[in-house]
Amino acid sequence: MLVTGGASGLGRAIVDRFVAEGAVVTILDRSADRLGEVAAKHGDAVRVVAGDVTSQRDNLAAVAAAVDAGGGLDVFIGNAGLWDFGRRLLDMSMTELENGYRELFDVNVKGYLIGARAAAEALIERRGAMIFSLSNAAFYPRGGGALYTASKHAGVGLVRQLAYELAPEVRVNAVAPGAMSTDLRGPDALGLQDRSITDVLPNEDAMKRFSALDLAPRPEAYVGTYVLLAARSESATVTGTVFDISAVGTPKR
């Protein structure tokens, strides 16, 4: 299997869980240091490719590494992303809006498209699965600003269209988690490259107020749905679906 953005945050939790399930996982991520940490922990259970999810060459290299490691490709998980830190439309200049759009959509949408194209033939051969990380922002406002929310809605369309195009050989679905403490960062174009989502999340008690289940989830809490969607026997009839697992609720007083 192949996971993009798998060296930290939700992607790292996904990798850890699939390795625990017995999978051999290839990771495409731009952080060579973090890739080294994952490789040191998991040894032969992982292959790492340092690269950019917006690069055709790097995606093809990652798919080739995954096929070599596993004798084929059963699962592609598009997970790498950028957040806009809730930046409002009127708080961006025209230049920031244009450049921020290009950078964020290149990662959140183009990166998924290129990754899907690179992986498609190998997945068809194995009747595999594509799974994309979206967000509660794919359903609701306030999960981000205009750029991030638009990119995640684009992801919903991508899932539905690819599920149609790649059926019946490949199942295509997505997982939409809620807020969690990770190192998710923002676009350079908006001056957000050095900020982490953890820097702006409310404390744990405040986060629980926005959860119907009184939870302040960590990345590990979200990964079970990825395992379900990757398992052919457990999700044989599921395609074109976005699973909202954000537990969003009405704030409690």
Short structural summary:
This protein has helices at residues 9-20, 32-42, 56-70, 94-126, 146-166, 204-209, 224-230, and strands spanning 2-4, 25-29, 46-50, 75-78, 129-133, 171-176, 241-244. The protein has 253 residues and is of the alpha/beta class. It has a seven-stranded parallel beta sheet with strand order 3-2-1-4-5-6-7, with helices on both faces.
**In total, how many domains does the architecture comprise?**
1
Overall morphology:
globular
Q: What's the gyration radius in Å?
A: 17 Å
Share of residues in helices: 40-55%
The count of strands amounts to: 7
How many angstroms separate the termini? 44 Å
- The average pLDDT is 91
Number of helices: 7
Question: What topology does this entry show?
Answer:
Layout: E1 2-4, H1 9-20, E2 25-29, H2 32-42, E3 46-50, H3 56-70, E4 75-78, H4 94-126, E5 129-133, H5 146-166, E6 171-176, H6 204-209, H7 224-230, E7 241-244
Parallel strand pairs: 1-2, 1-4, 2-3, 4-5, 5-6, 6-7
Helix pairs in contact: 3-4, 4-5
Describe this structure in words.
This protein is α/β, with parallel strands linked by helices. Helix content is 42%, strand content 13%. The protein has helices spanning 9-20, 32-42, 56-70, 94-126, 146-166, 204-209, 224-230; strands spanning 2-4, 25-29, 46-50, 75-78, 129-133, 171-176, 241-244. Strand 4, helix 4 and strand 5 form a beta-alpha-beta unit.
